[in-house]
Design brief:
The protein has 115 residues and is of the alpha+beta class. It has one domain. The protein contains two helices and five strands; from the N terminus they run βαββββα. It has a five-stranded mixed sheet with strand order 4-3-2-1-5.
Length: 115
């Protein structure tokens, strides 16, 4: 079951990904290209080149889980202006991405953040 908790970290891969990759191929991309640990419990987000397919890979404690969605019409929004192979996004941004919103064009209001 896919649970998008605010306690998790979400990393979007900024390079197009071949959607033929499965569990092991995506875990290899996470380890080798993104320099992250695929079994950390973080959720890793991949888009294909035309941004019509999305995959979310995560470790749920005893194995990898994969969420895969193909759009019939429209495109997902790819991360832009990033100085690395991936960018960390918030749960709300992932939800907006899945719903078709462009969070780069939205302005976030100030909120209190306990550090």
């Amino acid at each position: 079951m896919l649970g998008l908790s605010a306690n998790l970290r979400y990393f979007q891969c900024c390079q197009p990904t071949d959607m033929r990759n499965g569990f092991d191929g995506l875990a290899g991309i996470v380890r080798n290209n993104l320099s992250k640990d695929p079994v950390s419990g973080d959720i890793f987000i991949f888009l294909n080149k035309p941004c019509t397919h999305i995959k979310l890979l995560f470790w749920d404690g005893d194995g990898f889980a994969l969420f895969y969605k193909r759009l019939e019409k429209g495109r997902y929004d790819r991360c832009t202006a990033v100085n690395g192979p991936s960018t960390e996004i918030k749960r709300e941004e992932l939800l907006m991405l899945l719903e078709g919103f462009s969070f780069d064009k939205m302005k976030r209001k100030k909120r209190f953040k306990f550090v």
